[in-house]
Amino acid sequence: MSQPVITDYLFDEAAYNTHDGGYIPLEAPTTSPQPLAIPAIATPDRVEGQDVYYTITAQTGEVQLLPGAKTKTWGYNAPLLGQTFVYHDGETVHLHLVNHLPEVTTFHWHGLDIPGPIEDGGCHAPVYPGEARDVTFTIHQPASTDWLHAHPCPSTAEQVWHGLAAMAIVQDDHESRLPLPRNYGVDDIPLILQDRRFHEDNQWDYRADYDPDGVQGPTAMINGTINPYFDVTTQKVRLRILNGSNRREWRLHFSGDLPFTQIAGDNSLLPEPVTFTHLMITCAERQEIVVDFGQYHPGDRVTLYSDDVPIVQFRIRDFAPDHSTIPAHLFDVPEYHVDPDLPVKNVVLSGMDEEVMIDGKKFDMQRIDYEMPMGKCQIWDITSTNDMVGGMIHPYHMHGTAFQVISRNGHAPYPNETGLKDTVSINPHEHVRIKVLFNVPGVFMYHCHIIEHEDGGMMAQIKVVDPAHPDVQYHLMDHHTLMQAFAKERGVAMKDLWLGGMESYKKMGMHM
Ligand code: C2O
Ligand code: CU
Ligand code: CU
Questions:
Q1: pLDDT at position 2, please?
Q2: pLDDT number for residue 387
Q3: Does ligand 1 lie within 6 Å of residue 251's CB atom?
Q4: Per residue in 361-399, pLDDT tens?
Q5: Does residue 271 sit in the same domain as residue 141?
Q6: Which atom of ligand 1 is nearest the CA belonging to 122?
Q7: How far apart are the first and last CA of the chain?
Q8: Can you give the CATH number for the domain in which 24 is found?
Q9: What is the rounded distance in angstroms from the CA atom of residue 38 to the CA atom of residue 40?
Q10: What band does 511 get if pLDDT is binned at 50, 70 and 90?
Q11: Which InterPro entries match (predicted)?
Q12: Which helix (H) or strand (E) holds 17?
């Protein structure tokens, strides 16, 4: 095997979050190592042929994250983060979504190609405390690692910070036949990367930590575990890495510069595997890698770092030799033919802090910023104009679709973004071109996935029109209604309501 090994992070170094004045470096853990939590797989309430029924409850909880007081947390069918939802291509999923939280939330399926705005679960599909909503959708997409998170604008960031983020895995026949690790919890491991700051009595305090460019904390939290270790009992381990952080970019590498192979990113396998020693993952992206521990012996330890801070320790146990090889070809990327009648659509991300915008505007839930026909492919050109102090990298995300990255400033995209994606990072002044094609109709959001930028208005929405049903009307919520709900639930007057994203509109003298 003479595959080249990529040894750098590919992105514009000058724009790394480390150069931001507000950057909060991770600190090495000081508490004793804990076994890495593996979220349980959600079991359906019932299965009838291809119809699968689940109840998903957003709930409050308490978790012993650090010695001393338990931390108050939120989660899905779990006190923190959530169960892992495993869906299969072709099945119809029926969800009973229950809100046991003290405030309004939504259930957004990041990465699922399902209609919007209700099934998609963005801000137009609120579930109020004590209430429930039922949604049904059919899974029709390739195997991938996706996720569920709250999306009640402008308080998405705070709810994710409380813990509302869970993994969803789509399986299909093609991926199931490939010789890849697939034993969940044993050699197929979710790795949800987040960071938090613990305040008095081990509690989180989102408002105290608020930064309009994204909230960070110095403590790495992986699958809701502080200072985790994982017992390696197979030579090869597949890691489904999800950057579930509000703001942090993670720059991953192993001790000894152990190479690893990326097999998937966001919405599909990669056409060909790519081998790295260093890998950057920005907010909301997923990267699946296979790590071969064949050169190690029982008792050895291999550490995964972000920059120079250890985040997960792999403790090598006994394992049987594994001579399988990762196939040189993993996935046929579907051919998207650009519709000659659709011009290139430009998207400009601008500003930092409170000034963030898309195409010179802040998000308005009632405004449709763009319309596009379903089933037709169009090139979108995404750029970022901001270059203050080196600028920053904005992870650009679209709901309801899986796109193909075709170029970065006219050059080939990075070798690990050759599959289907829903989030792509934009370096300052870079033009990233993507092929966009929606297979489902509805109103969908597109935005920066630094979640505070999204709440702060760096977000817009598209209406995707099914030519067979061009007149469908969608009921769109508005910020004011959601904010009134938050005020009522928190027992404060509207003028005393604080939601992170509101600041960004206020400071710009704008109304929500
Ligand atoms: Cu992770 Cu608007 O989405
Ligand atoms: Cu999304
Ligand atoms: Cu951004």
A1: 54
A2: 66
A3: no
A4: 999 999 999 999 999 999 999 999 976 777 899 999 999
A5: no
A6: 2
A7: 56
A8: 2.60.40.420
A9: 6
A10: confident
A11: Cu-oxidase-like_N (IPR011707), Cu-oxidase_C (IPR011706), Cu-oxidase_fam (IPR045087), Cu_oxidase_Cu_BS (IPR002355), Cupredoxin (IPR008972)
A12: none
- pLDDT recorded at residue 506: 87
Query: Is 399:120 a contact under the CB 8 Å cutoff?
Result: yes
Does ligand 1 lie within 6 Å of residue 286's CB atom? no
Q: 109 alpha carbon to ligand 2 midpoint, in Å?
A: 6
**Residue 124 near ligand 1, beta carbon < 6 Å:** no
DSSP-derived secondary structure for 217-236: -SEEEETTEESEEEEE-SSE
Q: Does the C-beta of 399 come closer than 6 Å to ligand 1?
A: yes
Determine the distance separating the centroid of ligand 1 and the alpha carbon of 423, expressed in angstroms.
9
Ligand nearest to the CA of 353: 3
Contact indicator for 266, 111 with CB cutoff of 8 Å:
yes
Provide the edge-to-edge strand list for the sheet that holds 5-6: 5-6, 268-276, 260-265, 286-292, 236-243, 188-196, 219-222, 225-226
Q: Domain range for residue 134?
A: 34-177
Q: Which residue has the tokens 């935005």?
A: 447
Q: 72 with 109, same domain?
A: yes
Number of domains composing the chain: 3
Q: Which residues contact 172 (CB under 8 A, 6 or more apart)?
A: 88, 89, 141, 142, 143
Question: What is the rounded distance in angstroms from the CA atom of residue 159 to the CA atom of residue 65?
Answer: 18
Ligand nearest to the CA of 109: 2
Could you give the C-alpha distances from 359 to 41, 380, 463, in angstroms and in order? 41, 13, 17
CB 109 within 8 A of CB 120: yes
